[in-house]
From TrEMBL:
Record bears the keyword Transmembrane: yes
Official protein name in the record: diguanylate cyclase
Residue stretches making up the GGDEF domain: 471-601
Pfam families according to UniProt: GGDEF (PF00990), MASE1 (PF05231), PAS_3 (PF08447)
Organism: Sphingomonas cynarae
Key word Thylakoid present: no
Topological type in the membrane: Multi-pass membrane protein
Keywords of this entry: Cell membrane, Membrane, Transmembrane, Transmembrane helix
Top-level taxon in the UniProt lineage: Bacteria
Primary enzyme class: transferase
Length: 601
């Protein structure tokens, strides 16, 4: 039942309300002031029907058209028109609104916004075309067609649609979308402005002495500027109502025009002038406000993005040398963002002294060649801290393709640079630890020379090189004479000192290309590179002599001597065989009296 009741309201109630409104405004227009041949000064009924058609789906149009036709016929009959003419005028009145609706809907569903200049232009064009067709049909229906009747009808209908339709559509939009209630101050201001327009219009149209028609126009401009499209249409509607009443009583500045018909036409064109000035101005102002709001929103979003990314923008004007900074650039420098940007020279001084020439050269080259630059630099803040920044600049050109300014971006990359520095430091530390670990794994902890593992690795490497390249290599196995008795007589600490002294003497007696390594206990191995057997013997003898003639490790400790066995690489030999041959020669040196050397057979 509820759904059926709602459907009946849509089918019956709204057409009935439209018919009543149409009849009331049509009758009021016809009785307040008359134009040519019973034609009203303004026909708001057409604006009411056009608004109803634009706000409703096509399936409800027939009911509205019938209701409007009946109301128009009744109003014309009540005004004294013969029924054939009343019927003809009623058909024409309904047709003009239907034609305007078709013209506005024929490309896409109507989405009129009187805050959009293109929509205002489209609306005015449609109403003028519909009014022209309507005036043509009305002239054909009229018993005595004339150009005056055509022009009067055209202006009457056009004014009715242009003034009333925007008011109705704007009000309907407010009701349907229920926007947030404006502040009380704005509501009071709007009421005062519209009241002022009404009072000013009454004062102008209530007298016939002075032609003060410009004064209501000032009120319309004030309402347009402060209240937008709604203020423009409502203020013109107020002037139309007050002016129509005054004209009907023979008052107002329009009475200066000779003849009632001319006075009515003059008033109609006056209203059209007001609309032609107010509606485009309101649309342009509304567009400006939207653009300013969008610019403000985009600016806030840009500032948020710049703050989040630590990116700011700047501009250097070549003509006057002025600088423009965004808020984030001020924050990067630790300066008050509400202050003025420093000059170009002062901006350069904010960079690190080492980076100032690079920055200056980049800007100068861009101004000369137009080539953009991209560089890293440092800035000095007032608190003494240094920030790393990435600076990018591009040329801004005029219509003659001349560089007039430099537009750039600046990003605070301190955190990134510090992360890279920390990463490099960590990498260097890791590499150092890796090298240290390798060194520890290849170094004898007591003597600091190569351990057994390192010595054998070097020996194998030299043997491979000798096998493939023919470069000779020899080794010498060295053993400290009577080392056990040193430990027994002087203790293990003195024995360790002896080992350290022998290792140092061997290292000093050898070349940089040779190697000495501790094989185990008091036994050492010398890897002698690139020498003949005779040269290997000379080197081994030099080592033996250095040990035998060295000062005692400590007072009271006997002189240290060592025995050596030398073996030279020959094709087909390996590390194990070479070491075994050197060991055999060492054994022979030990049994030959010690402190001597022997060469493997």
């Amino acid at each position: 039942m509820a759904a059926r009741s709602t459907r009946i309201d849509h089918i019956v109630l709204w057409p009935v309300l439209l018919g009543l409104a149409y009849f009331c405004f049509a009758s009021l227009s016809l009785h307040l002031t008359r134009g040519v041949d019973g034609i009203a000064t303004i026909w708001p009924a057409s604006g009411i029907l056009l608004s109803a058609l634009l706000l409703s789906p096509p399936k409800r149009w027939p009911a509205f058209m019938v209701a409007a036709g009946v109301a128009s016929f009744t109003a014309n009959m009540d005004a004294g028109a013969a029924w054939p003419r009343a019927l003809g005028f009623s058909i024409v009145n309904v047709s003009e609104s239907v034609l305007a609706t078709y013209l506005l809907r024929r490309q896409r569903p109507i989405d009129l916004s009187f805050a959009d200049p293109s929509s205002v232009g489209r609306f005015c064009l449609a109403t003028i075309i519909a009014s022209t067709v309507s005036a043509t049909l009305a002239s054909m229906v009229s018993p005595a067609p004339s150009g005056t009747i055509f022009l009067s009808w055209l202006t009457t209908v056009a004014l009715g649609m242009m003034i009333v339709t925007p008011v109705v559509l704007t009000g309907a939009n407010i009701v349907m979308h229920r926007p947030a209630t404006p502040p009380m101050r704005m509501m009071i201001e709007g009421g005062l402005i519209l009241t002022g327009v009404a009072v000013l219009s009454i004062g102008v149209f209530a007298q016939s002495t002075y032609p003060l028609l410009t004064l209501p126009m000032l009120g319309v401009l004030a309402a347009t500027y402060r209240l937008g499209p709604h203020g423009a249409t409502v203020s013109v509607l107020l002037i139309a109502i007050i002016g129509s009443v005054a004209t009907g009583y023979g008052l107002g500045p329009v009475t200066f025009v000779d003849g009632v018909e001319r006075a009515v036409l003059f008033f109609q064109f006056y209203l059209l002038t007001l609309l032609g000035s107010a509606l485009p101005l309101a649309a342009l102002l509304a567009t400006r406000e939207r653009m300013m709001a969008r610019i403000g929103r985009d600016k806030r979003l840009l500032e948020m993005a710049e703050r989040a990314a630590h990116v700011g923008h700047w501009r250097f004007a070549a003509g006057d040398g002025s600088m423009l900074w965004s808020a984030e650039v001020f924050r990067m420098h630790g300066l008050d963002e509400d202050g003025e940007a420093p000059s170009y020279q002062d901006t350069l001084r904010l960079f690190h002294p080492d980076d100032q020439p690079c920055m200056s050269n980049a800007v100068n080259q861009l101004m000369t060649t137009g080539e953009p630059f991209d560089l890293d630099a440092r800035i000095m803040r007032r608190d003494g801290t240094v920030r790393d920044v990435h600076v990018r600049g591009e040329a801004e050109r005029d219509r003659h393709d001349q560089t007039v300014a430099v537009f750039g971006m600046m990003q605070d990359v301190t955190a990134r640079v510090e992360s890279v520095r920390a990463l490099h430091a960590a990498r260097d530390a890791a590499e150092h630890e890796a090298r240290r670990a390798v060194t520890l794994s290849e170094t004898d902890q007591l003597t600091g020379i190569a351990n057994r593992r390192k010595a054998l690795a070097v020996l194998n490497e030299r043997i491979i090189r000798a096998s493939t390249g023919g470069q000779p290599v020899a080794i010498a196995m060295l053993d400290i004479d009577h080392f056990k008795s040193i430990n027994d007589d002087y203790g293990h600490a003195m024995g360790d000192a002896v080992l350290v002294r022998v290792a140092e003497l061997c290292r000093l007696a050898l070349r940089e290309t040779d190697l000495v390594g501790r094989i185990g206990g008091e036994e050492f191995m010398l890897v002698i590179d690139g020498v003949t057997p005779e040269g290997a013997m000379v080197t081994a003898e030099r080592v033996r002599h250095a040990i035998a003639t060295a000062d005692p490790v400590a007072p009271g400790v006997r002189t240290i001597t060592a025995s050596l066995g030398v073996a030279t690489f020959h094709p087909g030999a390996n590390a194990r065989g070479l070491m075994q041959a050197a060991d055999d020669a060492l054994y022979a040196a030990k049994h030959g009296g010690r402190n001597t050397l022997r060469v493997a057979a």
